[in-house]
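Before any further analysis, we paired sequence with structure tokens, yielding the entry below:
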Amino acid sequence: MKIGILAITDGGRKLAADLATKMPEALLLPQEGGVAQALAQHWRKMDGFVCIMATGIVVRAIAPLLQDKKSDPCVVVVDEKGRHAVSLLSGHLGGGNDLARQVAAMLGGEAVITTASDILGLAALDLWARAQNLLCESKEGLTQASAKLVNTGQLKIFSEVAIASLPKGLVAVDRPELADIVVSSCIANYGIAVVFRPRNLVVGVGCNRGVPVEEIRQACEELFAEQGLSQLSIRNLASINLKQDEVGLLAFAHEHGWHLEFFSKEELNKVENVTVSEAALRNVGAIGVAEPAALLSAQSNDLLVGKRKWHNVTMAVARVNCTLSEQDRAPQDI
């Protein structure tokens, strides 16, 4: 994390200098124009701030800068004696709670954490989901589920992904209709349950040279609609290395933020139990592209959807073997 450190008193500056020596990636921020200007100037450049000053000063300075907890940097406020490190902003997703704990440990002080789930020792759903590579379909649903967990101490979870362990407060059930949370890549009516999409699907793509991005996009949309699958569960795309410069394919991956993994024909030809394509053998020397590329990238033998062919595109879907587990609640390295 890129951390900016600010202080306004002589004692605070001395503490800031000491803290900076213990945090190699931290930067002591100049304040010629005052705290508010310094924070505004670096707000989008830093992952977090340690402000050694009164909390009220920081609150007034950051108020005009706040946008969303998913994008705002975290803010930790420290008194100039280093006795308390208060996680003020973006405690969960922004890493403020972990930063407060680490700063307190470095200064021999105490971290002040006020988020309810941390105080009660329950799972922070947003952090847990991120650690498990899950995407929640509804921001409002996530907020409501988090509130229910804090209020009742328990949420029931049904998962199509194997469960190795769960954090405190999450209890597995064997039917989705019993669940508060459903983890599934399948599109279905799950009632009032909050749906999390596991990013465990790899789409193998074969295509003719020069195919437009619109045709690839339409093929993917049709395939996932037909199979009742959510595109939110796509982890990445895979293809043959001869397509590393295929403009339409690169554009399709870019517009969704999906990684593209490529394999040589020799690697593809080693994959067993796939549909052999005479066209692929003739054109690129591989037994196929979509199916073997998907399986290789997923590092599994679970071909969820076999090759489907359109005029200029072929696609297949493989499922990654993964499990849900209890999130490590130890402070992360800052």
